[in-house]
Amino acid sequence: MSNSREKILAAVKANQPEELPLPDVPAFTGDGSLEKFTTILEGIGGKVVPIRGITHLDVVVQELFPTDERVASTLMASSVLVDAQTPIEVLAAVDIAVLQGEFGVAENGTIWLPEANMLNRALPMITQHLVLVLDHKQIVPTMHQAYAKLGSVGDYGIFLAGPSKTADIEQSLVIGAHGARSLTVLLV
Amino acid sequence: MSHSQRSDIFLLDAERTTWHDETLWFVRQKRDKAVYALPEFQDLRELASQIKNHTLSKLDHYLVQFEEAATRNGVQVHWAADAAEHNAIVLGLIRKHNATRVVKSKSMLTEECHLNPHLIKNGIEVIDTDLGERIIQMREEAPSHVVLPAIHLKKEDVGDTFHIHLGTTKGNNDPQQLTEAARQHLREKFLAGEVAISGVNFAIAETGSVVVCTNEGNADLGVNLAKVHIACMGMEKLIPRLSDLSVFTRVLTRSATGQPVTTYTSHFTKPAPGKEMHIVIVDNGRTKQLGRPDFRASLKCIRCGACMNTCPVYRRSGGHSYDFTIPGPIGAILSPNIDMRKHASLPFASTLCGSCTDVCPVKIDIHTQLYKWRQVLAAEGEIPASKKWSMRLLSSVLSRPGMYGLGGKMARQGLRFLPHGLTHAKGYNPWAIARELPEPPKQSFREWYEQQQKVK
Amino acid sequence: MLLTASEAKNERMKVGLFIPCYVDQFYPQVGIATLQLLEKLGVKAHFPKQQTCCGQPMANSGCEQDAIPVYHNFVDTFQDYDYVVGPAGSCVYHVRKHFNIIDQTPKVEHVRENTRELFDFLINVLGVTDIPGSFPYKVGLHLSCHGQRGLHQANESEMTPVRDGQLKRLLTSMKGLEFTELDRNDECCGFGGTFCVSEAGISARMGQDRVKDHVRNGTQVLTGGDMSCLMHLEGIIRRGKLPIKVMHAAEILNGAIL
Q1: What is the tens place of the pLDDT at every residue in A70-107?
Q2: Where are the domains of chain A?
Q3: Is B369 exposed, middle or buried (0-12, 13-18, 19+ CB in 10 A)?
Q4: Assigned architecture for domain C5-125
Q5: Are B81 and A4 in contact (CB under 8 A)?
Q6: Which fold has domain B38-284?
Q7: Residue in A closest to B268 by C-alpha
Q8: Contact state of B183 with A22 under an 8 Å Cβ cutoff
């Protein structure tokens, strides 16, 4: 095995060209408005709902999902307790996960969700519906500002843009492939 | 069979060819819309190209840097010289964990290595979890596109397949309902998966992270529910810095489907506590391609599929006509590196129109490489002898002006006086199958010109 | 009659007329139109008769080594001209791009640099901005890939939605001329040189689709700057007995100037 490593590295060294320069990436910027973020996110199937604050999050969630009961959250009273060790069967039964999004990117409607905010790495995907709370001031214009702001991606983290979707059958867009069937962003 | 022979089979169903062409053209138009809306798109292409060029020029350095960072993160890094070694490593890891149930998200590399048949042969259940991949897995077909693996199928085909394999109602061809059936079916597989295999879109040398981009969320779901994550990557997936991702995430999906970004752009750096993460770095011909100056730029490819969507040949011949894991223009410049004889017809499956080069988000000079592969193939004796000799003959005529003038005159006279049925016979004049020959004029331009000169 | 300074310059310019082999043999009227159009614009072009071909058929088949004597014949034929002008973007592109495999002597460099596609020459060397005349037809403009993407004579849909280009601008000055708005402005016609026989099925299908776009959108006259694409499209139009006339743009422009 290590034999292949040495063999590959030697072949790479022998075959790669003279060093070419690594360019600096200029800080392209753009419209970083909440309006742009909202328009783009809604265009890719997300729902954006402004709320007053997170004190009555349970009421908001109840209004949005009147028939779903099993909620896992770091931000409100949970009916399902989830942590990194939660068994799969319990995770699979979660209807709604309500989590904190770190910041949004206006150009593509994506939201940074680090592992620290997930309760369990599988939760944002396995839940039927995902709700992310986002500070409306935390919007950056483009991915350049997004990665600059991040500095580190931590152990695991996702840029998440809308609900799970697919167009694998005849290019027909279907929302709700394997991950969450819906994404609601609560703007505070 | 050559590409043109396989294309002729595809073309037999004219209506389906129209549908296939229009469906992919629609994707190309979505790409255009997204590209036009971003003023700096051409600058981003140039940056993406330069970052990849730089990475390939210091690949040995970045591979080692990546390995060191990943190892520090608690990830186990493996090296595979070829497909067989890759498959052996993956099987070994699965066996080590006494696992039999594997879920796999999209990875063109594992397709290239034919991992699935290897695992199945060894008693492992491997389930492709990307919807398109799952559909073709059930049908025992190869993907026909790198991003849209089941784009050659119509919803009726999928309806039939799901009726047989998932028990959906016969005649139910509704994409929404078929997707829901697949969701239920695959949930069970996700929950039961012991080992998750994923592909890699980008590997970041400075952090040791791998980045996986999906719309369905299947990679994250599979990886985060399983005990073991095996990420398989070609060695060309490296980029130097985390910040370089800003460039690549901006061009990848806009080029691929016209989306501003994939739904999930997931960064896997360390395994979750109590779990394992492995990365298999694969060569399988890549170092050889790196050593071909005319063709090494093909290793910059980020597998967006834009060259397929724009290619007027691909759209009308289908991905399977290429008979290679990566179809379309990029496949036609990658495949001869792997097996020159088998794929000799692919670089000729192009009009060299150049549209592929113009959409490529990392600026691979695809159509120039197609032209150059033709030269290599001819030099290596991999083009038909009849073509070679007729080109020799043509050259000897065209480098002798006198012979050319005479030959041209004879050909024209022949066309003028031979019966239409003979000059347009399908057996030996492929031009005439669908086209009329030009009406031969009495006089060539040069004859007219000479006459004019005399008059003057 | 006195000449303006630019007319005098045009008269003094030594221009070699490059008539590609298939135009010479099958479309002499395109060569004639090119010669006459240049003359009307004050350029006396000369046709050196030892010219044959640019060598593209061999090179695109993978046999560029076999094309080398043809390249040399081309360079020797045209080395003494200030410009080499031809009514075929694809052949011009081949000379400019692919003659790089022979020794780059001063004469080779000179010929490569100064071989120009006809309309590129009219606009960028002669400074022609419009051609007075009328052509009261609905005209479908076929962009040759090598002219457009290779020589950058027209905008590319891969880059911009703006449909602009050299030939379009020249034709716009014709009175009564209306352009066909095509569904796909710059899709390849499928000719592709030897591709048209080695991949005959796909080539024909691409051409048929291109022609349908013109039929659907009302083209009466199909034109372009590259006779090879037009030869292929004409073959399909004639096979289908369709009411579309195919003309090289040099014929339209030459016919307009009286």
Answers
A1: 999 999 999 999 999 999 999 999 999 999 999 999 99
A2: 28-187
A3: buried
A4: 3-Layer(aba) Sandwich (3.40)
A5: yes
A6: Rossmann fold (3.40.50)
A7: A156
A8: no
